[in-house]
Amino acid sequence: MRNITDSVDGIKELDISLYLEEHLRFYEFSMLETTTENGSVLKSEVKKTIHSTIVKRDFETYVIQLEVFDIEYKNRTVSMAEKDFLGRIAEVNDDVILETDDHLNINKLVNQHQIQKRLEEKIERLAKSNVGPKVEEMFQYLREFYSNDRRILLDIKNYRQHGLLLNPFYDRYTPLSVKKRSVRYLNFVENAVVNIGEEARVKKIKLKERELEVGVKGKMIAPFYNDMIYKSIKKKEISFDSEKDKPMLDKYEGSFIFNMNTGAVKKASIEIEFSLGNNYKKTISYQLNELNDADNN
What we know:
The protein is an alpha+beta fold.
């Protein structure tokens, strides 16, 4: 990320990549989902602190450790017992070690065995106070999930997890470069899939602050699973006009700000607004901010 001007138009080629020997930072992550159904508003919020340790192993390889602390989960439709259960399961991912290249392409999940061991310890404890076919089904699903490193990595790179830090926008850019990728969302409508096409461009350079911003926009792309969406909306007894009302992506905008000296993320966000007619709306906000305190210097 060297030898560039403060004008995006002046760039011939820009390589956004890690350029460091060691990097230890704390980040604050939050996710806020607001769902409006027939005038009723439901909010679901997650906040957590992430400690990121990046160490350069050799010329092409980095080892990244992501540790999660102080998870706070707010959702008035979920009981305290359910929150405790979900919290215990979430702790399985509290310490993840990855091997990547300088563009954050993940080569290996280093500590999968330790993650599986943590899962079994959680299941053993939870099984003492949680019983029944649904619980056993959940435990079996989790065992199968964490036996597949590809599925674990896909989940880790989701914006709900560590996707803002391990973002896919490390790449070589020119002023006209557009980096494209498709993302599958399962939380726009319950039990329905929405495919989004993201497009990223270098948006702004601040030489004095040593910051570079990549802007992201998104739109719905094929395949369209509208039947799944309509089925879920009908099941919720949400009224809509089947002739006029269509699933709409009213907003999809993101921003990723990188440290120009190291290539590490300083802050990032994705803002989403989705609707179907006047009676169903969903907004989702993902935010990541570097914590600038005494422990982060």
